[in-house]
Amino acid sequence: MTGIADGGGAVTATPAAGTPIQPPSTMGLGVSLQPADSAAKTTGTFPYAADLWAEGLLWAAVLRSPHPHARIVSIDTTQAVEMPGVRAVVTHADVPGDASHGRRVADRPVFAKDLVRHHGEPIAAVAADHPDTARLAAAAIAVEYEVLEPVTDPEQAFSAEPLHPDGNLVRHIPLSFGDPDVVGEVIAEGLYRIGRQDPAPIGAEAGLAVPRPDGGVEIYTASTDPHADRDLAAACFGLEPERVKVVVTGVPGAMGEREDPGMQLPLGLLALRTGHPVKLAATREESFLGHAHRHPTLLRYRHHADAQGKLVKVEAQILLDAGAYADSSGDTLAAAVSFACGPYVVPHAFIEGWAVRTNNPPSGHVRGEGAMQVCAAYEGQMDKLAAKLGIDPVEIRMRNVMATGDLLPTGQTVTCPAPVAELLQAVRDAPLPALPKDDPEEEWLLPGGLEGAGDPAAVRRGVGYALGMVHMLGAEGADEVSTATVKVTGPVATVICAAVETGQGFATLARQIVQDVLGIEEVHIAPIDTDQPPAGPASRGRHTWVSGGAVERAAKMVRTQLLQPLAHTFGMSTELLSIADGKITSYDGVLSTTVEEALEGKELWATAQCRPHPTEPLDETGQGDAFVGLAYCAVRAVVDVDIEIGAVRVVDMTVAQDVGRILNPRQLRARIEAGVAQGIGAALTENLRTSRGVVRHPDLTGYALPTALDVPDIRIVKLVEERDVVAPFGAKPVSAVPVVTSPAAVAAAVRAATGRPVNRLPIRPQAAVVNRT
User: Fold this and answer.
1) 19: confidence class by pLDDT, cuts 50, 70, 90
2) Has residue 136 got a pLDDT over 90?
3) Which of 231, 499, 730, 771 gets the most CB atoms within 10 Å of its CB?
4) Which of 407, 286, 283 is nearest to 341 (CA)?
5) What separation in angstroms does the CA of 708 have from each of 450, 463, 555, 680, 705?
């Protein structure tokens, strides 16, 4: 079945002939259930970490390095310690456990000891009675630096002196697939650069650490992976994991693992040192300096095709700037190399990828990591081939699109639904937006806004297309297990699962799953902490699949407990009983009762796990079944460009997406629209700029996020519901793939409008200027 979202956001489907029309359900899967926290968020009562308070509270501040690369000669905390109101000052010497941490590689110090490796690296932390006192005390810490020459060009990292004991190379993947001697009749080459995009969460990082009587500590923060954070903290504090508890507060938006552990660890150390609760609310500047960003990437491509535009071979070199520490750069590189050819059939591929350390700000997981950077490059290459061959850009893509059963360059067979041709055809056939009206009142529609454009005659319209793909869940052997418990007491069900609601809608989905399986309308989601079994990080759609699958299994176990007594009484199996809208009925209509009556005051509960099928690491030639599943998207962008001043206005974004199954129509549409908006930011405005490793303007005036005036109407013209049989509910993640695809589509549209190569993101005005003489 294919669902199509209309302008109002509803997803409609035509029932098969002869199917009786049922009244619409108000609960369960497939319904636009209102999020339970929407009222609290709109009225300002939602409990964010920055709002927390405790008796005897102290305030923390962190001293950060002003240099991207320096040797620490000495640290003198005397003046800070002697300031009135200061309760504690901690440095590297005060870390009782592991001095380094990291989500994938433990190479990042809690506090810099001998060397500073990036601008903003933590040096020391202070706890004081007042936040102003804490900041003044941090500024009073005297640090003597021997400033060193920073390595900021990732190409120089290969020959530079090691910046870290582990060396400058984080990972190298030389993917080899097919015959290296094959040559196409037509060759297109390109060099592409992708900038440093920041997650820019709606709320900066904050947290509260509270010491416990047993010598442990509780950390209240907007964690997206509380158990990983607990393990990092316990190792740092030299404590057993059971003596550290992480409690998840309200998350003010997240793009995956975006929080900064370098903030949480000083908090816990200060709380343990002082015996008082300690709170830290990072400024926006500290947030920009501390957490990870999208990897800046340099990509060199050579595409080979035959005279009909069929791809023959792709050669590419991909260089990721990991910044000062490894973090998840190895995972990002694996995605970039694996998807370097895009959702196209390529019989021969030779992709070499590197991730290297530099003295630039740290890079890490940001939605669509790796896949977004290569999408901009391979789609630029497809446009180049189309121009060389005189083929329509859509047609050359249609001749090469991937389908179920094809091979990735990693040798893995695409077993999930891959309706790429259908998606591309949908955006191609959608009506184009009307041209701007010749009316002074519509001048604000011109690039640059009201009075921002030059001569209206210099405005050119361009239409561009892009296809993108992402992988679901973790990859290369990651254990993606999640655990959930469902309890039913009277007319109320409770879900206990450590899957964090980061804005992706898991809390709403969990309610819908229980409603669907048990027919109970009132479903509560328990607060999350590390006393619960782990559920893993909130990224790559994993909670929809793994945690949602665990909730469904637990709910079905409770369903069996509920139905077994009834089935026994009526001499039938539980499979002959159904639950819908709070009613239990038998296949023959003999039994009809309500769920509440069947419960009869009983309390039922069950715990279940969900673990997808295993994957394997890529081998030394980049081969292996590394991914659980894939999702696809097609985007058509329409832009108006003032070719004299280089201003670009996105007029229209048309999207067709492979979603597997629609679980919540309104929520799904919102996720796609948000992904497109983030993609427009990456295409046109978002770039955390540095000068010799120093972050320039680390604030929301220097870092330009797209506003409501920058994001056009987003038309979702097709949602392909071809269920992935190995996924619970058959659903696929929906938010990452439009982020991946939209920047490439905008770049293609600017190329079409200007005739310029447009090989850098974000697109700079000078790249869209055309000499009209």
Assistant:
1) very low
2) yes
3) 499
4) 407
5) 15, 21, 41, 11, 10
Q: What pairs with residue 302 in β-bridges? A: 189, 315
* CA-based nearest residue to 548, from 664, 427, 434, 704: 664
Q: Specify the pairing of strand 278-281 against strand 58-64.
A: parallel
Do 225 and 536 meet the contact criterion of CB atoms below 8 Å apart?
yes
pLDDT score, position 566: 84
Instruction: Look up residue 336 and give its amino acid.
Output: A
Give the 3-state secondary structure of residue 390. coil
Handedness of CA 329, 122, 201, 730 (dihedral sign): positive
Q: Are 30 and 681 in contact (CB under 8 A)?
A: no
User: Would you tell me how many other CB atoms lie within 10 Å of the CB of residue 234?
Assistant: 23
Cβ atoms of residues 498 and 532 within 8 Å = yes
Q: Could you give the CA distance from residue 144 to residue 164 in angstroms, rounded to a whole number?
A: 21
Does residue 762 have a cis peptide bond before it, meaning omega lies within 30 degrees of 0? Answer: yes
Going by pLDDT thresholds of 50, 70 and 90, the confidence category of residue 102 is confident
Q: What are φ and ψ of residue 344, in 5° steps?
A: -125, 150
DSSP assignment of 547-575 equals: IHHHHHHHHHHHHHHHHHHHHHHHT--GG
- What is the secondary structure of 291-357 as a DSSP string? S-BPPPEEEEEEEEE-TTS-EEEEEEEEEEEEETS-TTHHHHHHHHHHTTT-SB--SEEEEEEEEEE
Is residue 278 a contact partner of residue 272, using CB atoms and an 8 Å limit? Answer: no
| CB of 662 closer than 8 Å to CB of 28 | no
In the chain the domains, ranked by start, together with CATH numbers, are 47-148+211-252+256-278 (3.90.1170.50), 295-475+614-765 (3.30.365.10), 480-608 (3.30.365.10)
pLDDT at 24: 53
d(CA 344, CA 616): 23
Q: In this predicted model, what pLDDT tens digit does every residue of 597-630 receive, in sequence order?
A: 888 778 999 999 999 889 999 999 999 999 999 9
Both tokens assigned to 268: 């816990």
Reported as type and span, the H/E element at residue 265 is helix 261-274
3-state SS class at 732: coil
Given a cut of 80, is residue 22 above it in pLDDT?
no
3-state secondary structure of 285: helix
* Helix (H) or strand (E) run with residue 239 in it: none
Helix (H, G, I), strand (E, B) or coil at 503: coil
Reported as a single tens digit per residue, the pLDDT across 306-315 is: 999 999 999 9
pTM of the model: 0.92
User: Residue 344's closest CA among 473, 478, 468?
Assistant: 468
Phi and psi, residue 166, nearest 5°? -85, 0
Strands 217-221 and 492-497: unpaired
**Cα 325 to Cα 364: distance, rounded to the nearest angstrom:** 9
| Maximum pairwise Cα distance, the chain | 89
pLDDT in tens, 691-726: 999 999 898 888 999 988 889 989 999 999 998 888
Element (H, E) at 361: none
The CA distance from 584 to 189, in Å, is 64
Which pLDDT score, from 0 to 100, does residue 586 have? 83
Q: What angle do CA 212, 217, 218 make, to 5 degrees?
A: 100
Bridge-partner residues for 716, per DSSP?
Answer: 655
Determine which of 33-37, 543-547, 641-645 has the lowest per-residue pLDDT on average: 33-37
Alpha carbons 152 and 265: distance in angstroms, whole number: 27
Quick one: pLDDT at residue 12?
34
pLDDT of 749 > 80? The answer is yes
- The pLDDT assigned to 21 comes to 42
Separation between Cα atoms, residue 638 and residue 622, nearest integer Å: 37
CA angle 89, 95, 98 (to 5 degrees): 160
pLDDT band at 4 (very low <50, low <70, confident <90, very high): very low
Kindly report the length of the chain: 773
Calculated CA dihedral for residues 284, 288, 290, 294, nearest 10 degrees: 150
